[in-house]
Task: inverse folding
């Protein structure tokens, strides 16, 4: 089983992380989470909160659901960002990020030994709660296949649409 992390516990991210945490708890694994407002982490009792995004560097897959390009840049490349310490994670960006930022983040993560799948969602809060989101993913096909079982915890209509940035497009 993959070691999973989640960054961004807002309206969409919280129910998505809760779905992942419940699935992992059944297998004896714990989700690690980080949120800008630490109190939100308490809404996932099965998860372990970390003090900064870099605290997720030991994870195999880290889901990110933040609001925009600047927030993604901060959690990945800021002083305490995920990429500020050595790691090997696959980053799955599930927020709405520009294709240009997505491709740039993928390149920069790749230089540090990490991978990126862009996987924005459709279905709103109700879909996030029910685990029925539609997910359009871009990135390396082999990497996509590796994270597909985890995406299936979050959505029902999951499509690999092409190379990095294609999901955002």
Result:
């Amino acid at each position: 089983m993959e070691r999973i992390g989640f960054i961004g516990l807002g309206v969409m991210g919280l129910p998505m992380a809760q779905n992942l945490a419940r699935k992992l708890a059944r297998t004896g694994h714990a989700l690690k989470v980080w949120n800008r407002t630490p109190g939100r982490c308490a809404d996932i009792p099965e998860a372990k909160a970390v003090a900064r995004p870099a605290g997720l560097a030991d994870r195999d897959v880290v889901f990110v659901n933040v609001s925009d390009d600047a927030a993604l840049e901060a959690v990945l490349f800021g002083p305490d960002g995920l990429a500020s310490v050595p790691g090997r994670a696959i980053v799955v960006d599930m927020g709405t990020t520009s294709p240009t930022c997505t491709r740039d983040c993928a390149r920069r993560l790749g230089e540090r030994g990490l991978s990126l799948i862009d996987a924005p969602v459709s279905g709103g809060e109700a879909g996030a709660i029910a685990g029925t989101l539609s997910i359009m993913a871009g990135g390396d096909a082999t990497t996509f296949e590796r994270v597909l079982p985890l995406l299936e915890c979050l959505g029902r209509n999951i499509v690999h649409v092409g190379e990095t940035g294609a999901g955002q497009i």
The longest helix spans residues 13-26. The two ends are 31 Å apart (CA to CA). DSSP finds five helices and nine strands in the chain. The chain has a mean pLDDT of 95.
